[in-house]
């Protein structure tokens, strides 16, 4: 197994461990931002907005990812954060959820777009496929942390999980011996799905460049991300389920994302008519406001 701590910085009585998780996550974020910058420039907008917006998006994303994790865990019956509220800010102990990061990051992006009079659809369409790539690039960190794995499997690509990283349902080593038990690498499934989904979106973008309307790439991301996560959730025994249902809370949100994406595309391409919603533009609007 790979040690999740690369090295530790010692300054007097202060110690700060540098973890693979943080390094991989930030590297993936930078690569995704670089790709998004290229997409923004290709659409005629100032690509520097991506790096400027990152100052807003990254803190908001971390906050949202943590809060979503805490709420999800609490809904699943984990009373830790109610009994010990200070544990909510104990991020190094683990616990971030990508959906919370996307939600709060999206809110920050909306506020940034309003401040600089940017076309939100242009930003969303530019960022959408690169989010999938960033998520995929970050997933190896889950392997190092031995987390986000699935049920036991006999498939040849199953991975070992040490006893101290086992979920409670797999902690009985007489039933699930460390030496022979392997588990579904669900983080790898999502990584592969995200790479394929990003490739599909980029292929559609360049193959049908003249027919892609503003918002279509974002809707495609909603569908791909929602469908993929819905399938992968079936291999995630660590996720709390909605009482009385076999669905997890994340599963429900994923299905809703996919549904919204489908309805959005049908509306944008006039397959269905929603009179209570304003018409979407057929072209992006380029901002004339300078970055401060």
Q: Can you describe this structure?
A:
- With 292 residues, this protein is mainly α.
- It has one domain (19-150, 185-268).
- The chain is 54% helix and 4% strand.
- It is built from 9 helices and 2 strands.
- It has helices spanning 20-42, 48-75, 80-83, 98-115, 120-138, 140-145, 186-207, 216-232, 249-268, and strands spanning 5-11, 14-19.
- It has a two-stranded antiparallel sheet.
- Strand 1 and strand 2 form a beta hairpin.
Helix-strand category: mainly alpha
Largest sheet: 2 strands, antiparallel
Spans of at least 5 consecutive residues whose pLDDT stays below 50 are none
- By DSSP (H or I, 4+ residues per run), the number of helices equals 9
Question: What is the approximate shape?
Answer: globular
Helix content: 40-55%
Mean pLDDT: 92
Query: What amount of the residues lies in strands?
Result: under 5%
Radius of gyration: 21 Å
- The helix-strand sequence is EEHHHHHHHHH
Number of strands: 2
